[in-house]
Amino acid sequence: MVAEEHYQQAKNLINEDFSTAIESACESTADYCHRCKSENIQIFTKGKKSAFVVFMLLGFPLFFYQHGIKCNECGHFSKT
Predict the structure, then answer these.
(1) Element (H, E) at 26
(2) Which residues, given as ranges, of the chain have pLDDT below 50?
(3) pTM, rounded to two decimals
(4) Max Cα separation, the chain?
(5) Hey, which bits of the chain come out as E strands?
(6) Alpha-carbon Rg for the chain in angstroms
(7) Per-residue model confidence (pLDDT) at position 56
(8) Gap between the Cα atoms of 8 and 5, Å rounded
(9) CB 31 within 8 A of CB 42
(10) Contact 54, 61 (CB under 8 A)
(11) How far is CA 19 from CA 16, 26, 33, in A?
């Protein structure tokens, strides 16, 4: 459901191949730690525990946590 004046532009977007853009975005996600080059990493949410404690004490959530990758070897955290 697109306005008639935007029909051709919408059709071009639907038919466009975005696979190379998706592949390059996925390649930028690290499979190793940038500091020590270890492959022992995990997806991690930094600040989740403190956000929960603030929620329990104040009764409303404060969203100051960050999603990223944490190295299990050196403890380095990098945002995704």
Answers:
(1) helix 19-27
(2) none
(3) 0.46
(4) 56
(5) 41-46, 66-71, 77-79
(6) 20
(7) 80
(8) 8
(9) no
(10) yes
(11) 9, 11, 26
